[in-house]
Amino acid sequence: MTPAALRERLHGVFAFPVTPFKADYSLDPDGLRHNVRVLIKNGIRIIFACGGTGEFFSLTLEEYERTVSAVVEEAEGRVPVLAGIGYGTHLARQFADAAVRAGVDGLLALPPYLIQAEQEGLYQHYRAIAQSVDVGVILYHRDNAVFTPDTVSRLAELPTIVGFKDGYGNLELFARIRGQVGDRLAWINGMPTAEMTAPAFFAVGASAYTSAVSNFIPHITLEFHRALVAHDARRVQELLTSVFEPLCRIRDYRKGYAVSYIKAAMTTLGRSAGPVRPPLINLEPAHARELEDVLRQILTRWGASE
After folding, report:
1. Fewest beta carbons less than 10 Å away: which of 116, 221, 222, 288?
2. Segment 90-131, tens digit of pLDDT
3. Which residues are catalytic?
4. Parallel, antiparallel or unpaired: strands 136-141 and 161-166
5. Are the C-beta atoms of 152 and 179 separated by less than 8 Å?
6. pLDDT band at residue 258, thresholds of 50, 70 and 90?
7. Going from the N-terminus, what domains does the chain have, and what CATH number goes with each?
8. DSSP collapsed to 3 states, 153-205
9. How far apart are CA 223 and CA 20, in angstroms?
């Protein structure tokens, strides 16, 4: 898929599948393939392998390539597949090369490892990545990669830069960046449990959001998206109140639970997930029980996915 073609597909709901592990923390590729099939069957249109929810930061380069390859092979061209990349410039390009070998349609460039960089340094880093591949690249705005409008505008001149994912949450800055860059990029809400902030981001020009909960309730986040684009404010609020806000309460109990509760929910519902790898921690027993109660209430009201 050319960068331009990918750019036109970057709207709607994006799924970020977990990377399933066995009890000994080894990869579970069969479980991953099954999860991808479930996502596609339920109507997810774009899949991002090895993102933050997929514990990119815990994978070796060899594990990463195996994981991305499994997702690409299982998708069989039915939906675009993108992969996360990160760390310093040299390592990021190695991960990008591995993802391209695996056959991805694009890349999500996560913030560089650890350091706080000047805007010129961020520009040089992302330009080097974008110029090393011929697939579309999405910038990820968060943590130690917070861009100014001028930096994004410069990067948007590169033909392989196709999207901007906001995980920072400053709507004024998002609006200023979008106002300066315009339609050269696709605009994506990438906040944790992005459904909670989707109405606000869509109001300032986002056309897509990333969904971690699609791992276990894809039918509900797609229902939420339909209500959002239909401007059905009552339905949107009903879903926020009964589904997403209770899940956010559990997510916020501990650092790293944004990944842990997703895997715990999948395990509860019989999906392949396994434990999180350290330094993340699994849900504490009391939190796991609370999650089971919340899931029971959600599925009683909204039904289970196919």
Report:
1. 116
2. 999 999 999 999 999 999 999 999 899 999 999 999 999 999
3. 140, 165
4. parallel
5. no
6. very high
7. 3-231 (3.20.20.70)
8. HHHCCCCCEEEEEECCCCHHHHHHHHHHHHHHCEEEECCCCHHHCHHHHHHCC
9. 26
